[in-house]
Amino acid sequence: MRSFLAWFLTAAALVACGDDGGSTDPDAAPIDAAIVDADPTDAGFVAPTLLSETGLYSDIGTKAIAAGVIEYAPRWELWSDAAVKRRWIQLPAGTQIDTSDMDFWSFPTGTKFWKEFSRGGARIETRLLQKIGTIDDVSSWHMVAFQWDLAETDATAVPGGVVDDTGVNDIPDRAKCRQCHGPTRNPAIVLGFQALQLDHDAPANGLDLAQLVAADTLTVEPTADGNGVFFPFPVETGTPVVLPAVGYLHANCGGCHNHRSEVAMNTVPLQLRLRTESTYRTTWAATPTYSTVVNVPVTLVSSTGSHLVKPMDTAESEIFLRMDTVLGFKMPPVGREQIDPAAVAAVQLWINVLPVN
Ligand code: HEC
Ligand code: HEC
Fold first, then answer.
1. Where along the chain do its domains lie?
2. 230 has a pLDDT exceeding 50
3. Which atom, in ligand 1's list, is nearest to the CA of 190?
4. Are 106 and 97 in contact (CB under 8 A)?
5. Dihedral of CA 237/241/244/246: which sign?
6. Minimal CA–CA distance to 105: which of 29, 17, 192?
7. What residues have CB less than 8 Å from 169, skipping those under 6 apart?
8. Which residue out of 191, 196, 256 has the highest number of ligand 1 atoms within 8 Å of its CB and is therefore the one to mutate?
9. Is 335 left (phi over 0), alpha (psi -120 to 50) or beta?
10. What is the pLDDT of residues 309-350, one digit of tens each?
11. What's the pTM value of the predicted model, to 2 decimals?
12. Are 333 and 179 in contact (CB under 8 A)?
């Protein structure tokens, strides 16, 4: 709590609005290829070319984080080929997050998020999401990755991405950012800083939902139960098997496969994003992950399993097959070049305890 309140007292007001330059991405991948930057609407926004210009650090040499920038972690992470990741948020002073849709928060203009990727103790890239406009669209969110130099003195913007022939260190271009952080996938644009991902007791007094509520940061405040949980799921006896699996799918798949996504609405039926409303939480069967996936037949010809999930049968469960591969039909389709062995095991465990009807 203390660190979070200090954030509000010290946060510097940020003034940055408009669009980010209007360039198209030459390497646009097939999905969402049509999404390009809108024309510049405000020449006042100058896209930063160095990470040191973005306000993350007060001293990039010593890696001292600037006042008003707060570190956080989602309770379920996106798998990024075993990279170690750190994340930070900065809200403009005195602003609130619009939580009138509790599942898809809308952030005030000026909000910045950073995510840093390291391997073997070395910083590879740091990604920036900065809200420069007022609506939650691609023209309002500046998205870019910065590649660190070898001595880690600074990182340089790489809007066209970086392809690393050695494998896992690819840096996505801006079109790939939007395949996941795009309004046709997720109206919030921001994917990890959300109610269900922060509804945990963050270690070391870290930023969590209880702190956001206590600091009056949310326009609509959820209420915690007697255990301090805001959006409880069914309690499992013994070692939890269901929540780790559906939580992983929420974080790694729900950004695209959700009830507000064009993917879910128009192409494939599956919804892997959990929902805050109690009707979708009181039983496991009521969660979208069960109601749209378990015993539901696949729809695509590229799917080789018979069902999205077939209880006790991973060989016929398409979500399992697409997690357990690096071939063309892998899921997620971008951002992953290696299988996540722990997640494959967790999802297998879950499928193998599902009752066969
Ligand atoms: C494979 C889909 C995917 C791609 C591609 C992707 N991201 Fe993300 N990103 C996510 C998910 C999911 C999260 C939340 C989970 C986490 O942080 O582990 C996230 C989190 C973030 C965050 C922290 C704020 C938030 O949304 O929770 C930033 C900043 C970010 N991404 C920037 C970028 C930028 C910039 C690019 C392109 C250079 C990019 N991302 C590409 C899926 C993706
Ligand atoms: C970046 C957005 C994105 C993410 C993240 C994503 N998917 Fe998909 N998924 C798609 C799209 C688009 C399709 C349909 C076209 C295709 O197959 O490429 C699809 C199709 C599927 C299908 C085929 C459904 C059918 O009816 O045949 C399955 C199963 C699936 N995804 C599972 C997953 C799982 C499991 C995850 C997480 C581990 C995931 N997806 C993450 C975009 C995504």
1. 2-180, 233-351
2. yes
3. 26
4. yes
5. negative
6. 192
7. 119, 124, 162
8. 191
9. left
10. 999 999 999 999 999 999 999 999 999 999 999 999 999 999
11. 0.91
12. yes
